[in-house]
Amino acid sequence: MMHNQLKVAAVIPAAGIGSRMGLAEPKQYLRIADKTVLEHSVAAVAADNRVAAIYIAVAADDIRVQSIHFKTNCPVHLVVGGATRAASVFAGVAAAQADGFHWVVVHDAARPCLQLSELKAVIDAGIEHGDGAILALPVADTIKQTQVAKADIIANSVPREGLWRALTPQVFRAEQLIEALRQLGVEHAAITDEASAIELTGGHPKLVVGQQTNIKITQPGDERLAAMFIALMAKEQACE
Ligand SMILES: Nc1ccn([C@@H]2O[C@H](COP(=O)(O)OP(=O)(O)OP(=O)(O)O)[C@@H](O)[C@H]2O)c(=O)n1
Ligand SMILES: C[C@](O)(CO)[C@H](O)COP(=O)(O)O
Fold first, then answer.
1. Domain boundaries 8-133+166-239, corresponding CATH code
2. Is there an atom of ligand 2 within 6 Å of 108 CB?
3. How does the average pLDDT of the chain come out, rounded?
4. How many Cβ atoms from other residues are within 10 Å of residue 154's Cβ?
5. Which residues of the chain have pLDDT under 50?
6. 4-17: b or e for each residue (b if 16 or more CB lie within 10 Å)?
7. Which ligand 2 atom sits closest to the C-alpha of 170?
8. Of ligand 1's atoms, which has the minimum distance to the CA of residue 217?
9. pTM of the model
10. Domain definitions of the chain by residue range
11. Cα–Cα distance for residue pair 129/4, rounded to 1 Å
């Protein structure tokens, strides 16, 4: 069912330093085609007309974001993020809640290839399912576990049945997410996404199958893959 009438706020954690990329600037400011990775991600979440406001959590000393003019149909607010992803998400959700939003769609700034069909599906599922919903992909490869002392030597294989890779967006009731983060604390090492905070406080979010193209720019080379996907998606849109 499509929940057309409901308005949601998007929260974009964009306060990371991108240490695994090893670049001079954070990965959300890399340029792909005509704009930065952050602008691609913001435009992607703004594409669903239920998204009525966007809250971007940026580092306190971020000056790059000041020169960006976000071209969206809804207001874009900047909030100060924190030392962990969870702290940045908390800041964004708290701001959205203060502005009266009851639902939040959290999407990594580092995932610029999100497609509208995925976004719509996860918002629908999140609102419909009691404990929210996330985009995810079932693990498709054989999974190996390494030895404790030797990181490149196999100890055994792990059954992949029931294993999924978590993506974003992740959709939750603002109240439920903020309470979970407050209860666990935003420094909690096991909160690597919003769903894990909900799980750790007793909830069971729904999994919605995402697209292989919805990659997170994490390691060198990922930006080239993202650029290819963005070019392909633009070409497909032009043909529609
Ligand atoms: N304190 C932090 C850490 C991360 N993020 C954001 O969370 C998203 C996903 O995190 P990740 O890929 O781990 O980004 P970084 O923390 O920047 O990368 P790294 O772990 O390589 O340093 C990114 O959009 C990142 O900007 C954030 O808002 N605040
Ligand atoms: C939220 C997330 O993108 C889901 O895959 C991810 O957990 C955050 O980044 P990290 O690479 O795990 O730090």
1. 3.90.550.10
2. yes
3. 97
4. 10
5. none
6. eeeebbbbbbbbbe
7. 1
8. 12
9. 0.97
10. 8-133+166-239
11. 16
